Amino acid sequence: MTADALNAPTPAFLAALRDRLGPQGLREGDAAAPYLREPRDTSQGQAALVVRPGSVEEVSHIVRACAEARVALVPYSGGTGLVGGQVRPEGPPCVLISVERLNRVRALHPDDDAMICEAGVILADAQAAAASVDRLFPLSIASEGTARIGGVLGTNAGGVNVLRYGMTRDLCLGLEAVLPDGSVFNGLKRLRKDNTGYDLRHLLIGAEGSLGVITAAALRLHPRPAEISAAFVAVPSPAAALELLHLLRGRVGEQVSAFELMQGSGIRFCLDEIPGARCPLDPVPEWSALVEVGGGAGSGAAEALEAALEEAFEKGLALDGALAQSEQQRADFWRLRETIPEANRKIGSIASHDISAPLSEVASFVTAASERLLREAPDIRINAFGHLGDGNLHYNLFPAKGRKREDYANIKPVLTRIVHDLIDAHGGSISAEHGIGRFKTADLVHYGDPAKLAAMRAIKDALDPAGIMNPGAVLG
Amino acid sequence: MTADALNAPTPAFLAALRDRLGPQGLREGDAAAPYLREPRDTSQGQAALVVRPGSVEEVSHIVRACAEARVALVPYSGGTGLVGGQVRPEGPPCVLISVERLNRVRALHPDDDAMICEAGVILADAQAAAASVDRLFPLSIASEGTARIGGVLGTNAGGVNVLRYGMTRDLCLGLEAVLPDGSVFNGLKRLRKDNTGYDLRHLLIGAEGSLGVITAAALRLHPRPAEISAAFVAVPSPAAALELLHLLRGRVGEQVSAFELMQGSGIRFCLDEIPGARCPLDPVPEWSALVEVGGGAGSGAAEALEAALEEAFEKGLALDGALAQSEQQRADFWRLRETIPEANRKIGSIASHDISAPLSEVASFVTAASERLLREAPDIRINAFGHLGDGNLHYNLFPAKGRKREDYANIKPVLTRIVHDLIDAHGGSISAEHGIGRFKTADLVHYGDPAKLAAMRAIKDALDPAGIMNPGAVLG
């Protein structure tokens, strides 16, 4: 079934929905505009109606109505996705369904290391709810003040703590979701072990709204580390950063919570573009790592980090470094790291890539990629940064100083192809944590496994025969 | 599509398979008998031919041939599954496909904490391969000397280290599998982050061979704990055992590797039935816990365990205890725990249940279940044991001394219904780690979520329209 078979909603269809949902459940005209904006302004969404259901029953009603009328339905959570999954610029007008009113933390179960959150709960609020019962919900991403639980599940978000705690899917014990026929999947059990049939949870997580609307989740909590320690370390190269990571893990094992790589260009972007930004090290290192460890009270995590760094200096794996002496200083380290995307936006990238490779391949990828790219476009500026501990880099390309991204419009597809071909050749992924959305559907077809793509298509057609759920996303 | 539409293999079909696979690739007559045996002898399998492909290409050929001829295909790995998933007693004769000759460890990647194993690698050999590069493959189950990687993935096996390291699915980074149309899914990337479309890996894991034949996996490795310490602790009740677990996790966090519960009846079964078995504590406690912690060199895991136990004694959570003073003693503790299933088999259970509940519900379930069951059948003996840290109990019922399991044949379904109704009411699962197989398909229909069951059926029909893959398993 293709999107061609979809219908524009009729006036009668829209009137019936308006009637059912009431003014609180609708956004139209100017009030609908924010829901149609792509975060990097690269495309413009459209919708016949924005609906804001206030209950799972209302979600089910909306889905069923769209399925019967063959009207496209686009799920919208926090709106922060970077691959256009929540923005439908083309095709018959859709209904956009925002989960923002499903915003209750339904239950906290600290003894089970679990909590039940609805899809519209903002990620930062979910973190706070966990902290209120002395637990950690470890998912942490730059957009956590805006992103909502439904979207982080739909896209299987990653972030800075994946090294220790896994992706969003690893933090989800169970789901409640409305399937494309309007039926409600009640899968909110908070069990660590439950081998009862196909894992529908893992199929819906990361399906980017193309197989249903997630309405709530049983989320997995962890003990809150009582001792947290962070260091900002200048390293001679990405290869040395990886050796430092192995050294650290050998000493403190699973207590390494985050291991972020930053390139000098990215830090300089922050210093140039963001008022008040400052680098803990002077001069700005060409490569640096932001390392965080956390353990229970008396775990000695801080001492272990310090000892590991001393060893790293002796071995030449660290050139300079600052150990956070206070919570404030630790927050400052992180603010610099989290400011890089904002600085990138201000400068305006030619092309950005969210890639991953096996750890053992990252350093050789970085070397090969910059060599190939600079041969093709000698004046571009490369900013590679991100979650090195997971092999995940945001590999972004910028115009030379004084030039504009538009100057490189012709060469942009060539540069992206170079990056993606190389990461593929290194056994990596062309979408580590952002997903496919609408921007990477052609890449998925090009780099994806044909048997997997055929299976995905068969599953999509089986669960959503009318093709209403987020058409154009993931499968194109 | 139902199994009714399946065909018995014709002589020509079998001759062509024999021809293609050669003598090494076949088992017939007496040589086929071991593949048709159910481990607890509760049913008898049948097959027109047992095939043993030596390559992924041969697997693909066999699957394609069966799909074209609509001949049932039953995957067989180590043969240790306890729910009949590998044993097809009825329906048109099938082809049974053993993965035992796909038994290479294809690659070891210690720097990536990964290894590539084929489906026929025995679990204990996979553990040894990881150890050979100073890494841990933490999956550990009683049958690890016989179970093979394909089967532990197909059933999403659990075991004693789930508390710390997760289920089999949490230890799998990628899969290679032959799908029901014979196409090969090449998904062996060893990435921690890869958001490129639906997660086919998690769909195949736990599908019990009903969606394809897993041929290889990229498995996730962990650092090997340098310091391991274990204790055998008498506790006043399951509720106290759970409090001890919380106390321990508060002190040593993620370093708690295992937390097993044993009931006095189970230990006495071992002492009665297994020559040489002995209990570290005298008298045999009514409830005891086997606790293991592990950390890096200098992590102080052993001291932390000892300190936590002292606190537990003061709080009345521990009544007696033995701390392993040597590797030998630690192995002895585990041998007693791992001998319980063998002793159970010798006595012969009336009914056995593989159940899980949220931790906060386990103690009240145990109390309510024994009360209800003993009202129904006052002379039965209950042996509840297992992976308390995950909320997973093997809850098995035995005849009174001097009586036989057959004496309880009439009441068996009533007892099982009591156990399953109660665990369901406590938010638990009727199959925590063994899966559905053929023995629990009716339970899945009874206790499963209807929307999930409908989605499972739709997925099965979409990926396996001829219904050849392990018919009768999971979906009945």
From TrEMBL, chains A, B:
Gene3D superfamilies registered for this protein in UniProt: 3.30.465.10, 3.30.70.2190, 3.30.70.2740, Uridine Diphospho-n-acetylenolpyruvylglucosamine Reductase, domain 2 (3.30.43.10), Vanillyl-alcohol Oxidase, Chain A, domain 4 (1.10.45.10)
Residue ranges annotated for the FAD-binding PCMH-type domain, each copy included: 43-224
Keyword Flavoprotein: yes
Flavoprotein keyword on record: yes
Cofactor(s) listed: FAD
Signal peptide coordinates: none
Pfam family, any one: FAD-oxidase_C
InterPro entries with a match to the protein in the record: FAD-bd_oxidored_4_C, FAD-bd_PCMH, FAD-bd_PCMH-like_sf, FAD-bd_PCMH_sub1, FAD-bd_PCMH_sub2, FAD-linked_Oxase-like_C, FAD-oxidored/transferase_4, Oxid_FAD_bind_N
Record key words, sorted: FAD, Flavoprotein
GO molecular function, one term: catalytic activity
One GO process term, biological-process aspect: respiratory electron transport chain
PANTHER family with a match to the protein in the record: BLL6224 PROTEIN (PTHR43716:SF2), D-2-HYDROXYGLUTARATE DEHYDROGENASE, MITOCHONDRIAL (PTHR43716)
Family according to the record: Belongs to the FAD-binding oxidoreductase/transferase type 4 family.
Protein name from the UniProt record: FAD/FMN-containing dehydrogenase
Species annotation: Albimonas donghaensis
